Amino acid sequence: MGYTFVEKVLARKAGLDSVVPGQIVSVRPDKLLTHDNTADISNKFRRIGVERVADPNINVIVLDHVTPAANETYAQNHKTIREFVAEQGIPAFYDIGEGICHQVLPEKGHAWPGAVIVGSDSHTPTYGAFGAFSAGIGRTEAASVMATGQIWLRVPESFKIVVKGTLPARVSAKDLILYIIGDLRADGANYRSVEFTGPVIRQMSIAGRMVLTNMAAEMGAKNGVVEPDAKTRAWLKGRVTHGYEEIHADPDATYERVIEYEVSDLAPQVARPHTVDNVSPVTKMAGIKINQGLIGTCTNGRLEDLAAAAEILRGKQIAPGVRLLVLPASREILLAAIEQGIVGDLVSAGATLLNPGCGPCLGAHEGCMAPMSSFPASIPTAFPIQKKWPSMHWKTWTRLLQPMCSQAISS
Question: Which of the four CATH numbers 3.90.1150.10, 3.30.420.10, 3.30.499.10, 3.10.129.10 does domain 287-369+377-385 have?
Answer without folding.
Answer: 3.30.499.10
